[in-house]
Amino acid sequence: MARYLDSACRLCRREGLKLFLKGQRCYTEKCAMERRQYAPGQHGQKRRIKTSEYGIQLREKQKVRRLYGLLERQFHGFFDDAARQKGITGENLLTLLERRLDNMVYRLGFTSSRPEARQLIRHGHFRVNDKKVTIPSYLVRPGDQVSLREKSRQNPRILESLEAVDRRGVPAWLEIDKEKMTGRVKVLPEREELTLPMQEQLIVELYSK
Q1: Nearest to 128 by CA among 176, 182, 186
Q2: Mutual orientation of helices 53-67 and 200-207 as an angle, nearest 10°?
Q3: Closest by Cα among 166, 59, 103 to 94
Q4: Domain boundaries, the chain
Q5: pLDDT in tens, the chain (209 residues)
Q6: Which of 102, 107, 117, 124 has the lowest CB atom count within 10 Å?
Q7: Where does 11-169 show beta strands of DSSP type E?
Q8: C-alpha triplet 43, 41, 209: angle, nearest 5°
């Protein structure tokens, strides 16, 4: 399967926003966005020209797609699913992306980044309603419980991430029990609970052309 193999920090610099792709490093002075706040490449520091309407829409789509770690075909599939649902397409899209298992594992604080969450899920470290799930794109529902398998509860990377969860916080639509190492989906997320700067209407306009 195709995947991005270049530097993750280049993606953050290109979008001009921390996408938190490298876990705890993103919270330190070693973060590339702290040291080089300009686009990557030899022309990154040059004066930017005026961006077209299409360019603005494209950058917004690329930002959200890279934030959740999806390839173009995967992201477009989520958009098609959102467009078929009732309600506002842009908000439906963000809700579907937030419901991904890898995002939930990251949001609960079991991992320090979404890429790390995908890796641990594929390796069978997590259970959904006591059943092994190895698909990062699995969509959770209200009432679903995510737990660590018994052998993984002493994993130092996971324990380190759980210690730092208070700094990042857990969204109101989720709840975590650190002692039992379980998390539960209370309700589906509302748009106002997604605090990162995302203009989903620009994505809808781009795909509607």
Answers
A1: 182
A2: 110
A3: 103
A4: 100-185
A5: 456 555 655 665 556 666 665 555 555 555 655 555 556 555 555 656 677 888 889 889 988 998 898 989 999 999 999 999 999 999 999 999 999 999 999 999 899 888 899 999 999 999 999 999 999 999 999 999 999 998 888 888 888 888 877 777 888 999 999 888 999 999 998 888 887 788 899 999 999 87
A6: 124
A7: 126-128, 131-132, 145-148
A8: 85
Domain 100-185 has CATH 3.10.290.10: yes
The residue assigned the tokens 């890279």 is: 66
Q: In the β-sheet with 126-128, what is the strand arrangement from edge to edge?
A: 131-132, 126-128, 145-148, 182-185, 174-177
Percent of the chain as helix, strand, coil, to the nearest 5:
45, 10, 45
Q: What are phi and psi of 184, to 5 degrees?
A: -135, 145
Name the token pair of 174: 């989720």
The predicted model scores a pTM of: 0.81
